[in-house]
Write a structure and sequence with these properties.
- α1 crosses α3 and α3 packs across α4.
- 27% of the residues lie in helices and 24% in strands.
- It is globular, with a radius of gyration of 19 Å.
- The protein has one domain: Alpha-Beta Plaits.
């Protein structure tokens, strides 16, 4: 079984919304699983689309499609031993362009988390098409390295990160091989 480890370095706080609210908080975080597996898979898939193009057959092979599940399983992010999630709060307000003051009912109290680092794994849970295992590993490693933002409000200063594969950084040779895969898929 293949298991790929990844390390996330946080350059600022992030917020991945919970599917439930809490009293007084308009944008809550799930304190039990602040950075879930499905979010990590989603940001990696989005990065892979940017790297390979949306028509690449490798996208469906690696990340799954409505016709076939992904042969890979993501874990939620976990913190290094002896550390814990640091939760804080922030406010977001919409400014009325006419009055230049806070728009009525547009003040949001949200939670955010800011650990120094976290880790997650992507484990082979199924069988990639024959002869494509190494291509899948390459796509996963390069897609992870291409992620620089996660969670909500990342265009407003939250969620800036760097993700590195645990075995070795993505090299020039890896990028060249990925470009070749992209060209072959056209």
């Amino acid at each position: 079984m293949t298991a790929l480890g990844f390390t996330i370095r946080f350059h600022g706080p992030f917020r991945v919304g919970a599917s439930y609210g809490r009293d007084g908080i308009g944008a809550a975080i799930d304190h039990d699983e602040p950075l879930p597996a499905d979010h990590l898979k989603g940001v990696m898939r989005d990065a892979a689309v940017t790297l390979l193009g949306s028509a690449s057959p490798l996208l469906a092979e690696v990340f799954g499609s409505r016709y076939a599940p992904s042969p890979w399983a993501w874990s939620a992010a976990t913190l290094p031993a002896g550390t814990s999630w640091n939760f804080g709060r922030n406010y977001r307000v919409k400014i009325d362009p006419q009055t230049h003051s806070a728009a009525k009912d547009q003040l949001v109290l949200g939670e955010q988390a800011w650990p120094q680092a976290a880790a997650f794994t992507v484990t082979r849970a199924g069988r990639p098409p024959e002869g494509h295992h190494d291509d899948h590993v390459l796509v996963l490693r390069c897609a992870a390295a291409a992620v620089h933002g996660l969670g909500a409000w990342r265009r407003r200063g939250l969620g800036w990160v760097g993700i590195t594969p645990g075995d070795a950084p993505v090299s020039e040779a890896d990028v060249a091989r990925l470009v070749t895969l992209k060209e072959v898929a056209r």
